[in-house]
Amino acid sequence: MRQTALHGYDILGLRGMSKDNIDLILHTAAKMKALLQRGKKDMELLSGKSVAIVFYENSTRTRLSFELAAKYLGAHVVSMSEQGSSVAKGESLEDTLDTIAMMAADAIVIRHSHSGAPTVMASKIDVPIINAGDGMNEHPTQALLDMYTMLEYKGRLDGLKVAIVGDIYHSRVARSNIWGLTKMGAQVVVAGPPTLLPKDIEAMGAQVSSDVEYAIKGADVVMGLRMQRERQSAGLVPSLAEYTRYFGINAQRLAMAKGDAILMHPRPANIGMEISADIINGPQSVISRQVTNGVAVRMALLYLILGGGDDIEDID
Ligand code: CP
């Protein structure tokens, strides 16, 4: 079996990922999606492999799509939350992951509230680590599924104008998308209240504006972000109603993008706050497709890290 370029790799973020590897993941995701569309959910590409899914923060989409992705590929899957585990008795993250590694897990998917936790663990644990979202740092698999969805609708990433609107400061989704999209040749403009625009964002390659209409004007892709009420320090926005008035994405603002622009959101969404109810399921919305594509992208990643090379072509 030929090994892929990502065999045994940690997936910690898109900041450190090469354009070639992003291309490889997106290309493989297209193959996985084609298999899923043919109803293939009982593949043996990862038979005999074990994937541990360890979440220290809440999740619906990322957690379930990793579980389904691993199962569709034939892997064994175990899943653990902070609550109900020995973490609640004070066991450290390193001891927890070490315990999982000692049980011969072949990959660990981790979500953690501390930025950098997966990176630190990857330096200590000899099992591939996949970052499923760490604090305010990165959410690489979300950005990969976002880029894959853009490719499906636009046929390219190079030259696209992508407007990312909302709470940039707390958003690991925004950071991973900026690292990934700029690497792939897209122009990224972020917009939000000045208090929610981190100072380092321009150095990452994005244009920054506190004028949402300037950011959306002429965009190919408009991406809203969740207002992360659980991570807000007091006083970052004067009021949520005012936030919606000045920065919420609504039909009038979406109309400033290109006529064929797509509307994205990683979800969960505060409907009526950062995005209006009339557009979230409207004709330009691809938000449901993002969720569907999350399974194919995570299948691609698990396959590339744990599986082989050629046998994906052999499935009929
Ligand atoms: N988009 C996203 O990460 O959703 P979950 O928190 O439900 O996984």
The largest sheet has its strands arranged as: 7-6-5-8-9
In angstroms, what separates the terminal alpha carbons? 18 Å
DSSP strand (E) fraction? 5-15%
The chain-level mean pLDDT equals: 94
Tell me the Rg in angstroms. 19 Å
| Overall spatial form | globular
Q: Share of helix among residues?
A: 25-40%
Low-confidence stretches: none
| Total of DSSP H or I helical runs spanning 4+ residues | 11
Report on this model:
By secondary structure, the protein is α/β, with parallel strands linked by helices. It has 11 helices and 9 strands. It has helices at residues 19-37, 61-72, 93-102, 117-124, 140-154, 172-183, 212-216, 240-247, 251-254, 277-280, 287-306, and strands at 50-55, 76-81, 107-112, 129-134, 161-165, 187-191, 207-209, 221-224, 262-264. Phosphoric acid mono(formamide)ester (CP) binds next to helix 2. The site of phosphoric acid mono(formamide)ester has 10 residues, from helix 2.
Features:
alpha/beta, 5-stranded parallel sheet, binds phosphoric acid mono(formamide)ester, 316 residues
Short structural summary:
With 316 residues, the protein is of the alpha/beta class. The chain contains 11 helices and 9 strands. The chain has helices at 19-37, 61-72, 93-102, 117-124, 140-154, 172-183, 212-216, 240-247, 251-254, 277-280, 287-306, and strands at 50-55, 76-81, 107-112, 129-134, 161-165, 187-191, 207-209, 221-224, 262-264.
Secondary-structure blueprint:
Elements (H helix, E strand, L loop, with lengths): L18 H19 L12 E6 L5 H12 L3 E6 L11 H10 L4 E6 L4 H8 L4 E6 L5 H15 L6 E5 L6 H12 L3 E5 L15 E3 L2 H5 L4 E4 L15 H8 L3 H4 L7 E3 L12 H4 L6 H20 L10
Parallel strand pairs: 1-2, 1-3, 3-4, 5-6, 5-8, 6-7, 8-9
The protein binds phosphoric acid mono(formamide)ester.
